[in-house]
Amino acid sequence: MIQKEDLVIRVAGESGDGSSATGEMLAQAAARSGLQVFTFRTTPAEIKGGPVMFQVRASNNPVRTMGDEVDVLFAFNQEAWRLHHQALAAKSVLLYDPDECTPPESYTGIAYAVPINQIANEAGNRRGKNVVALGVVAGMFGLGLKKLEDIVHAKLGKKAEYLESNLAALRAGIAYAKSIQRTDSLWIEAAGEHHRYVMTGSQAIVAGAMHAGIEFFGGYPITPASEIMEGVASAMMQTGGAYLQAEDEIASVMACIGASYAGRKAMTATSGPGLALMSEALGFASMTEIPLVVVDAQRGGPSTGLPTKTEQSDLNISVYGGHGDSPRIVLAPASVEECFQLTVAGVNLAEEYQSPVLVLSDYSLSYRTETVDPFDLTQYPQVNRLRPEGDLEPKQYKRFAKTDNHISPMAAPGMLNANYTATGLEHNEFGSPASTPEAHTTMSKKRWEKLAPLKASRAYVQRFGSPKAKVGIICWGTTAGACRGALRVAQQTGHDLAVLQLQMVWPLPVEAIREFMQDVEIILVPELNYQGQLAKIIQAELCTPVESYTQYNSLPFERKTILHKVYELMGVEEPVLH
Amino acid sequence: MTAILDPNVIVRKPADYKTDIKPIWCPGCGDYAVLAAIQQALAALQINPKDLAIASGIGCSSRLPIFLQCYGLHTVHGRALPAAQGIKLARPDLTVLAVGGDGDFFSIGAGHLPHAFRRDMNITCIVMDNEIYGLTKGQTSPTTPYGHITKSTPMGNLAQPMRPLGLAISSGASFVARGFSSNPKQLAELIRKGMEHQGFSFIHVLSPCVSYFDTYQIFKDHVYQIPDDHNPQDMVAAMRYALETERMPLGLFYQAEPRPMSVPSEAKPFDTQAHLEHYLA
To answer: Is the Oxidoreductase keyword given for this protein (chain A) (predicted)?
Structure first.
């Protein structure tokens, strides 16, 4: 067997036949053994039925994408073969269930028949098909082979009678793997023990929100954000805090605004359709300078669109959505680790700037699992909104007082002599309705200029790669992983490339972008939407043309797709890898 | 009202709840009487303005918090109730009111009503119903009588007016009453009782608009007092009053044992480390 640098395994079948469970346990076992993992899955929008696939990429190095090519495909049925055989590379391995799937004679690659139902039956566990598959894959290719029994214990060991039959199925799978006459030599195992978390993006957002001190959560079910609501609800059972599953997204965001007005840190999570409904409320939070955090787990749009597919097409509505001039902050995590980090940052920024903050994740990030190194939690302190200090005289409190940094002390109910009404009407320093030209000029400036420091800040910009390069990539959100993967390959092939990842997309960090633009000749902006939403924002804000590069097939970018464009812009021949 | 004898305690009078901002309402608007009745009820209960939060939506009546000593949240059209519930869940220590008009609560925000009723939180909801859109100058509303000609229904209103008290009783509100701005004493009393009630109190107030649909005479001709022998715990009897269309009963329709959605205690610090350990591979 030859130890691979990384290995990509895809398990594909019918929704409900256990292919996702197989993939999840495989990822868990690999992570427990010390490998880094990155998973990717697609599911149908239907409740039952339809094709599903679960992909696990495992490596001894950091992994930032799902992997470009599939090393091993396990096809549970013919449909799985039909949908996924194109992903197979020259040296890939096909595993298939001969009872359900017959690869065409024209297929000349390496293929092994694995009669999973028959093996399960012989092991005395008729329903143990997915555990057999798990044993076969790990038995053949390594991954977390040594940790498999632990994982089966943890996942399926709740009832003793099931545990024994599942372990029997697992061992039968491993034994079958050993009996196969191999013509390939794929193998991966951990180089050393590591203690890492295995989490999804949604789980990391929940952890970040709770760590940042969220005390109120209002939500409404929507794919792919419901797990955030469920996770917060469960975490709040231990800590207290107030939680409401509201009647719709408008109610959930307005309840958050009410709670935040009342002095509690509040957050909601939704997807595009819900965010559209929240637009008016976001403007209200801007106008009344009420801290608020909205997580938008993006999915394919517009309208109902593709609820179970990924896209980065909610940038425009996040930055510009809403009537009037309504400032807000928009953050975009690129990985599970950043889901934690930027959710904490989002809550803190909302407090510091008394502003709505949007955190844009997406479908793929919501559901994929990644290995995450433990956080040094002392690096993530909580920030609290500015409060009025000392005793206040009656009728003197100015909620929207003029200050040097345009941030005014915010009272909460219960404070003496600080009564005020937060109104969506334009108002004066006391918060009283005022529709004079002076009031609107002063207050518009206040609301916008308080965010000005963020335009100059480099705190939420990550730069990677060469200090000078012909081509520089500016990216945001989930696409950054593929860009960093491309960077690694470009440098390995002897080409300079620079990557600027915007963790904060709005206010646009213009200073960092301007500096980056001086170091590169061509700016490539890859993103998962039709219009090139970030590219247009950069061009509008910096008056500099960029090369927009969009993908709108509802799938994440692959590293090779980015690389292809990078080499084209460099004007160099695309090197042949492998 | 409990007499307060301690000389060190400030006794608040209704006028103490006024702000310096004069209401924008037309002379003769029913909402003046509602504002006064709320002040009466607040004084009767000696509510400290620092512990009073009032959420409202958009419309003439939704300006009310601006004219009252309170922490006000003058939100967007129709959303007083979600905001009020957010405040109450986050801060159960506060006295919370949600105020506004028939457009706010029965039209654009109607979707929130049954859910506020069934959650039965300790919030007092006061709807100033003038059966017309006043702030936008005279369009038909969900409670405009059938056939009434307005600017937006030149052929006459072709939809039946809704009966919000029936909705309240059937969806779980535990205190349902109707007052009339021309009967301020009863109104103040109903608001006070509603605020004392520990669940959701829904107070429907007939509050005429003098500019776009002057209903003073119509209301006076149609209102009557619910008889003293009505048992407010009798849901079916209450429903019968709530569904009346020819006449408009005034008083306490329904009051049941409150079953408020449980309000959690003060949040404890979150143990992030322990939480994350669950995800260790």
So the answer is: yes
